[in-house]
Structure formats: C-alpha cells, structure tokens
Amino acid sequence: MQVVNTPIQENEKLNAKSDKVAREKPKTDPINGSHANVGETVGKPFAKHPKMTMRNVDVFYGDKQAIYDVSLDIGKHEVVAMIGPSGCGKSTFLRCLNRMNDTIDICKVKGEIKLEELDVYHPKQDVVPLRARVGMVFQKPNPFPKSIYDNVAYGPRIHGLFERKTDLDEIVENSLRRASLWEEVKDRLHSPGTGLSGGQQQRLCIARTIAVSPEVILMDEPCSALDPIATAKIEELIAELSKKFTIAIVTHSMQQAARVSHRTAYFHMGKLVEVNDTKRVFTNPQHKLTEAYITGRFG
Amino acid sequence: MDFSQIFMVMAATIAMTFFLGRYRALKLGQATGGRKSLNSLPTYYGSLMAMWCGIPCFILLALWMMFDDVIISQAIMQELPQAVLELPTNERGLIFNMISNTAENGARAGAEPYMVAAAERLQSLRETSQLTLIACLASLFLVIMLVVWAKMSAKTRARSQVEKGFKWLLLICASIAIFTTAGIVFSVLFESIRFFQSVPLTEFLFGLEWSPQMAIRSDQVGGSGAFGAVPLFAGTLLISAIAMVIAVPAGLMAAIYLSEYARPAVRSAVKPLLEVLAGIPTVVYGFFAALTVAPFIRDTGGLIGLSVSSESALAAGLVMGIMIIPFVSSLSDDVINAVPQSLRDGAYGLGATRSETIKQVVIPAALPGIVGGILLAVSRAIGETMIVVMAAGLAANLTANPLESVTTVTVQIVTLLVGDQEFNSPKTLSAFALGLMLFTITLVLNYVALLVVKKYREQYE
Ligand SMILES: Nc1ncnc2c1ncn2[C@@H]1O[C@H](COP(=O)(O)OP(=O)(O)OP(=O)(O)O)[C@@H](O)[C@H]1O
Ligand SMILES: [Mg+2]
C-alpha cells in the first residue's frame, strides 16, 4: 500500500534544508529529556503542492500550552499519519485544522493555518463552509439517532447540496458505496444508524463525512474502537479515499500508520519532532525520540 | 416515668453496650494474640452487642406500648356497673374518657362515686404495668447481655452479622414508604367503594353536573346532589393545559439556553435562580394569582370588551405554568446535558451551526427524556391545589372558555372535606372517589413517564 506518488517526490528539494537540521541530534536523553530539548522539527515538514499549510502553530488550553510552534504541510491527495505518545497533542493539533477546538471555550490557537488560500483562523472566517471543506471522523463512532439514510443525508441537507430528492438519493448511495457500506445496508436504509455494528457505524460516519464532498478528511483514531477485520476494511477505504481526498489521520498503531500513510509525523509533548516519508520514519528515524518511540522504548 | 423516659433510658443503656462489646473484643484479642486474631474490627463487636441487646428490648417496648392501654381499659370497663355496660358504644367511650381524666387530674365536681373508684383502679393498674415493664426490660436486657458476652469469641463473625442487621434496617426503612402508599390506596379504595354503592360509577364518570350539596332533611331545598365528575376533570384539564402551554416552551427553551449557550458563569447563576421558583410555597403563588394576575386579566379583558370573571382558569393556569417551568427546565437540562458530546461534535464536524445541531441532533436525541420530564410536570399540574383554590374559583362550570371560572378535582376534594361533615354521606365519600381517580391518572402518567425515561437511558448506555 506504500505508494510514493509524485507530489511527494517533489517535496524532496523543499525539505532538503531541514533534512540537514535533522542530523544534529539533540544531546539529551530521549526518555527523560524535557520538551525544551526536543529542538526543531527534523525531516520533511513541507510539501510542494500543499492542501493545508500550518505555520508556527501554538495551542493553549487556558494557561497550559498543548502545542508548541508546529509547522507542517499536508499535500494534495496525501495521507499524513500523526503518531506519538498519549497526551502529546495529536488530537489537539488535528482539531485545529477545521476549528473543532472552537467548541472548547478555553482553547486558544496562535499561528497560521491555511486551507489552500483560505485563512482558517481569520476572524471573519465562518466555520460552517470551512467544516464542509474539512470534514472529521471521530474516535468513537457517533451516528446520530436517526435512520442510516438521514445520517448520510444530514450534511447535504444542512449545506443545501441538492435540488431534487433523487439527487439526494444519489449522494447517499454514492457516499455509502465509497465507504463500502452500501451492500450491507441497502435494504435497511431507513432503520436507525445506531443499530449497526461498531465497524459499520464507523463506516457510516465516514460516509456521512464524505457526503458533503469535503476536500480534506481528518480522522482521529478512527479504528481504535474496532476489531481487526473492521480495521482492515477502514484501512482499505483510506487508501481508496486518498485518490479523491486529502487525509490526516491520528493513530496509535504504528503498523496502521505504516500501512496507510505517505508521510508520518511524530509528536512529542506538544512538539512536532520528526516528519518524513513513512517508510523512512519506520526504517531509519533521524531523531532519537522517534527512534525510541517506534522501537517501543517508551510511549 | 412515662414511655418516652423509659425509651430514653433504654437507648442510653444500649449505647453503652457498644463500648462493652468493644471492650470485650479487645480483651478477647489480647487473650488470643493481638487484634489481628479477631475476626472483625472491635467496633463491629460493639455494634453486634448493641444490636443483640437493642432489638429485643425495643420490640418488647413497642408491643407493650401497643397493647398496654387496650388491656387496661378492657379490665376497667368490665368492672363498671351493669347499667353503664349496657349503654351504646360512644357513650361508654365518653364515660371512659371521664374516668381517665379523673385519674390524671383528680376528681371533679359531679363525678360519680363509681367513676372515682374506677379512676383509682386505673391509676394503680397503670403504675403496675409500668413497673412490670421496667422489670421485664431490665431482666431481658441483662440475660441477653450476659449470653452475648459469654458466647462472644475471637471467631465470632461480627462484621457479617452487623452488616446483615444493617441491611434489614435499610429494608425496613425502604418498605415504610411502600406500606404507606399501599395503606393510602386501600383506604381511598374502600371509601370509594362505599361511595359507588350509593352513586353508580357511570353517573360519576360521565355525569355532566356536579353539585354535591345534599338535602339533610327531606323537606329541604337543595336537591338530591349530582355527582357527575366531568366538569371537574374538564376544569383540571383546562387549567393543566394552560399551564403546560406556558411551561413547556419556556422551560424547554430555558434548558436549551442553559445547557448549550450560556457561559458557565451565567449557567451557575441562572440555574439555581430558576430552581428557586420551585421552592416558592404554592400558597404564595396562589395569592399572586388571585390578587395580581386575576385582576390584571379581568381589567385587560374589560379594556378590549371581554367579560372576564374575577376568578378565571386563565389566571390560575398562567401562574401554575410559571410554577412548573423549573420542573421542565431542570429535567430537560439534565437530559440535554446527558446527550454525548460526540454527537454534537459529529454535527459540528459536518459544518452544522449551533442551532442546527440543537434542533436536529441534540433535541431529537434527548426527546424521550424531555417527554418524560414533561409528563412528570403534567402530573404535578394535575395534582396542584392551592393556586386553583385561590385563583380559579369553586364553580363547577363545564366550559372550555379560559376566561370563566372553573374548578378542579383537587379543589373539590378540599371543599368537600373542610369543615364538619357527616362521614357517611355520599357528599363526603365522593371526595375519596375523586381522590382515587386523580391518583389513578397521575400514577399512569408517572408510570408512562418512567418507561419513556428508562428507554432513553438504555439508548446511551
Ligand atoms: N479540553 C481540554 N482542556 C484542557 N486541556 C486539554 C483538553 N483537551 C486536551 N487537553 C490537554 O492537551 C494535551 C494534549 O491532549 P490531546 O488530546 O491532544 O492528546 P493526544 O495526543 O490526542 O492523546 P491521545 O493519544 O491520548 O488521544 C494533554 O496534555 C491534555 O491534557
Ligand atoms: Mg487523542
């Protein structure tokens, strides 16, 4: 599944400079090192054709800083995996990308986040169209207490994406097909979505997200509540979806990151320590902390 | 010494046995090698001792209190002159009262000699009874205490026994409420059956006229009394409906504001304030309705040419609605808060606005719980009395016009039972029939509400 496609090869040059920075490994002990010693991001944080660009992003919960100066690009049709020990700020960072953090009162975001030319955190930017472009799938499947059909139709309805009922039917069917759920539910579209199995519910949530045709899909540990078979299905789906969408996925499973992503970003205590081509991160990590994490020495 | 003093002395003594038991346990522990060799903590031995000594003594005391008076009065009555014994029951009761008065306060002028004699006898019987009681209690206590003391060993499973005893105590407390409810239901049921022996059930349920005034003598005007409960239930329904029209939207929207929009500071200030509404005594609401709202409605109605009676269903319903707002809002607030955040995130993540999320995701998810809360509020409205007595009047009009005065089931029950009543007349008994009906209705409502709420809970667990 490790497809290294063109936009990523083009990234090489851009990132050449920061690649050098990578060689200067911090001297502190990786396990006990405080975040002050993590140093700058090593690897290739930038992309030639970025879909989303994040520059010097800081996130605070009240007085407590959760993300320190993170810069990262996500290229078009790229799958970027975010890994790191629990509490290192992966979810927090992901939720900045479509301003889901707005729902938490004490959360403040600084720095620049752009979706192509759109300034995500511009004070006049309305979150409604933004979230239609940057959809999100959550850790726990959260279908609405409505029918399967209405779950998928919810987004198109609130954004007025269709004119006739038949158009909506089509959107629903296409989304369910893309989420490879159609065959399993086509006979019971009007039974409640909460009646599906966990894996089916998660695919329903994915269908619900792609029904509004977003450009970017954010996934926060989408498989952590699922069994291996359902997980395999979703991973297959991610590969398929990356043809059409740009995907950022948070995961605790390094195998999963290795299977589905083009680039992998390793976070440590709120800092982005290393980003690189997935294969490279897992075979030849450049930062001690990354190495320690993927060899299972802590995390 | 009377029973309460005996009780207090006994309670104090038994409290002492706690320390006795603990002391015994500590001694046992020392003998067999430290506290560790005891089966339970020393305090459990103390509680066990107190429990064993306390329960039988309290039971004896309770039984004595129950039967002591009955037995003594029987004994006294049997010794009264033959002429007195042949009197009807209530007159005999009067005589017995005079005897016991004499016994307590000394002979009055006009007391007959046989009464004085009986009073003396009563006094001495009572004294004997008390002395016997004290002797019985003391010996029972001593015997048990010695037996427990002797049998207590390091192996006694004191903790499990004490916990068993505690479980029973909890069970008894829990059953008090249940038995009381059952008692109320049966007394109301039996009186209602007596009522339905004189007034047919169909007339009560379907009759359109309510005028419970019955002629006491046959030549009196005032008619035979009509016991059709329909106007009362219609009145109840009308007022409750008005109340719900006020309370449901206001309460629900207050709940939505509090749980979805208000900042935490606002929420923590407003929620208790709203709940204060529920703490205002209904009498206060009653005179607010009668003295402020009703005249206001009458005058406003007069201005636009409507004739409004000075006691109207509208006034009572409005005020009742305000009273019920906190019920609806606080229950709805709870269920809205119980809707998982992940559902809201799901909707926000698709680009739904706050109001879309609330209308299309949160409220539908919370709906069963909200309905449950509303049903509980309805049964509260139906049972409300004070506001209606004061603001809606007593006239049993069968009308759907909220500007007229109507009356409700609860109000009629009050008026039927206030004052001197002959207990056997259908007029008085009809109050029980009304009570039974009301009880049935609210019971069904509560049951349905609980079912709905339960179903809601299952959905998210
Ligand atoms: N709502 C919040 N309020 C305050 N602090 C928060 C909040 N959410 C997260 N944090 C803090 O921010 C830091 C990063 O949390 P985040 O949820 O992003 O971690 P994570 O990497 O996603 O962890 P996990 O792998 O366990 O999901 C943590 O220290 C956490 O305590
Ligand atoms: Mg997380």
TrEMBL record, chain B:
Compartment list: Cell inner membrane; Cell membrane
CDD domains: TM_PBP2 (cd06261)
Transmembrane segments: 6-23, 44-67, 131-149, 169-190, 232-256, 276-297, 303-328, 361-382, 431-453
InterPro entries, per database record: MetI-like, MetI-like_sf, Phosphate_PstC, PstC_N
Alphabetical list of Pfam families matching this protein: BPD_transp_1 (PF00528), DUF3708 (PF12501)
Keyword terms, alphabetized: Cell inner membrane, Cell membrane, Membrane, Phosphate transport, Transmembrane, Transmembrane helix, Transport
Superkingdom in the source lineage: Bacteria
PROSITE patterns in alphabetical order: ABC_TM1 (PS50928)
Domain ABC transmembrane type-1: 233-449
Membrane topology, record value: Multi-pass membrane protein
Its job: Part of the binding-protein-dependent transport system for phosphate; probably responsible for the translocation of the substrate across the membrane.
Family: Belongs to the binding-protein-dependent transport system permease family. CysTW subfamily.
Protein name, as recorded: Phosphate transport system permease protein
UniProt organism field: Alteromonas aquimaris
